[in-house]
Amino acid sequence: MRLTMIGGGGFRTPLVYAALLRDRAPGRVTSVALVDTDEARLRTMTRILATQAQGVADAPAVTTHTDLAEGLRGADFVFSAIRVGGIEGRANDETIGLAHGVIGQETVGFGGISYALRTLPTVMHLAEVVKRVAPDAWVINFTNPAGLVTEAMAQVLGSRVIGICDSPIGLARRALSALGLPTGPNVEVDYAGLNHLGWVTSLRVDGVDRLPELLRRPQQIEAFEEGRLFGAEWIQTLGVLPNEYLHYYSYRREVLHSDQLASHTRARYLLEQQAAFWSDAHGAPDPLAVWEAARLDREATYMATSRDSVGMGERNADDLVSGGYENVAISLMRGIAYDEHSRLILNVPNAGTIPWLDDDAVVEVPCIVDASGAHPIPGAQVPDFGRGLVTTVKYVERETIEAGIGGSRAAALRALAHHPLVDSVRVADALLDSARATFPELSYLD
Length: 446
Hints:
- This protein has 20 helices and 13 strands.
- The protein is an alpha/beta fold.
- It has a six-stranded parallel beta sheet, sandwiched between helices.
- α14 packs antiparallel against α15 and α18 packs antiparallel against α19.
- The longest helix is centred in the N-terminal third of the chain and has 25 residues, at 109-133.
């Protein structure tokens, strides 16, 4: 199989390549095309991947491309992981948000909408080029906001675009670990919602739901990241396990206050950290070691202000393990390419799964994957208290898509003004004006 990675010079590429190296089953990926606009990063990334491949027989061949169409030709699968505006764009989102008294996090609220508005024209162009150059390819979307971007690209690619996020599987893995249980084929996780806005509603191991057992044990709840983030009492009150990004909704005041007190925003920190990484890795004799050190530092500081807002302190070693989106992606590829049925949590069109959302609304739910794609499993249950939030945020996503594709400033304003983390129409209007003044990419909005 041939895999094309859009944004192949990105920091997470070695995670995907490591998973490809571990996959020794027949029919595995044998060719990887890295596509990126930054030639220097592609050269450095090629050195990192070559170091990873040392001693591995028949490692997937790696080619690099700055021409999109060239990199897509012959692709069986396409990974899309791009960041329009780079880390600097994220930093500007955070700064603008805080200047107007709202959280600027990159995928929720103002930050997520601004990020999407910059990204949508680019991913829609990508979808059109895929349809023209590699019409039989399947697109696996990692580009954030993942659910929104997947829903927009589906307008061109239909069911051949599927979104992936590692938050749900990471949450399930950590919860099972708190009970002393490993993940495996005997585990079924029920999860429902939107990307970065969902809940684990059951953890079945050999057919027995172990979530009630976990909910009875406050000490075990607070043994893993999300349990400490929300607190055992609140999770017991909810009766389900919330995705970590729901912390921005549940503890909005505390997170905003922590952001305002922080010496620098998360993105400003990443700007410095990533600049040092690329500089150090460029000429390092072992660029993989430089990458691994930067990855661990990045994981250790993940959602730092959210943790600070509830006094969590440093992350535990178990929480630094990647959520595993790269392994989910390979399972998805193999399931489609070789009809290897698997159960995965994915971002796909609703198709009646959540009855009060329309069929085309992209949701994040368990799916069965086979040669014809990903099919949501009927019966996904959003908790009653979450229905209003899911409905509202889906409306915001839809208005953002309308703005991003149609160039409507009015739709962008509706999206911002109706988001639960933006508490005023005047603030929404001011945020939009600040974003348009900051980002040349938003000049299309009128």
